[in-house]
Amino acid sequence: MFSCRLKFSGLFSRYLNLKSSFSFLRAEAFLQLCDFQSAAASYKQAGILLPGAFSRRLAFIYYLQGQSLLDQSLFLEALEAFSKAAELKPDCRVYKVRSVVCLSAAGRYSDSLKLLNHWMTSGNPTADLYVLRARLHRRLQQTLRCYQDVKAALALNPSCPAAGLLLQQLHEASEASRLKAVDKTLTGQLPQALCMINVALENNPQDPRLHLFR
């Protein structure tokens, strides 16, 4: 009786392996056709037979699906795909970043910022993440926070080109506002001049000329 059970167990395990292999091959065939939805369904079926065996591959399929949808400007559908990928591989930073990008592309800057803030406080922020958040702050007209994130990015990576470009843009905006403040002062429009110099300070709070002007 015991030997029969062992034999049955061995046959059943072989059956599961064969069936999961078939699902795997079918999923790869769908992937070659760029049918990501069918490929994901086949991998999910294979994962039911062998739990955890195909999680990494399934996450990658969802990533490819999300990227395809993002390229078609289907931002919320892409967000769903990237979110599924992140659930399967929570340690993969790329999947989470793409989710933030989708929210931003859909115009949901506050939601994007909220997701990014949560992620950055629970992990180790990089210069690229600070730049990404700086851009979101700028979209939301939170100029001072944008400046602070740019400086944080440069502190981590002084040669970061994206951070350097953002800092240059902030400095240019600051100088433009300073010149407007000068014009307003010369024409006696002091409240408007103060408003312009405050804008200049938000874009470049470390410029001593602006503090003296105010």
Automatic annotation (TrEMBL):
KW Cell wall biogenesis/degradation (keyword) present: no
TPR repeat segments run 59-92
Per its UniProt record, what InterPro entries does this chain match? TPR-like_helical_dom_sf, TPR_rpt
Gene3D superfamilies xrefs = Tetratricopeptide repeat domain
Q: Which domain of life is it from?
A: Eukaryota
Instruction: State the UniProt keywords alphabetically.
Output: TPR repeat
Q: Which PROSITE patterns match?
A: TPR
SMART domains linked: TPR (SM00028)
Q: Does the keyword Metal-binding apply?
A: no
- Report the PANTHER family cross-referenced here: TETRATRICOPEPTIDE REPEAT PROTEIN 16 (PTHR45153:SF1)
- Supply the name of the protein: Tetratricopeptide repeat domain 16
**Native species:** Amphiprion ocellaris
Name the gene behind this protein: TTC16
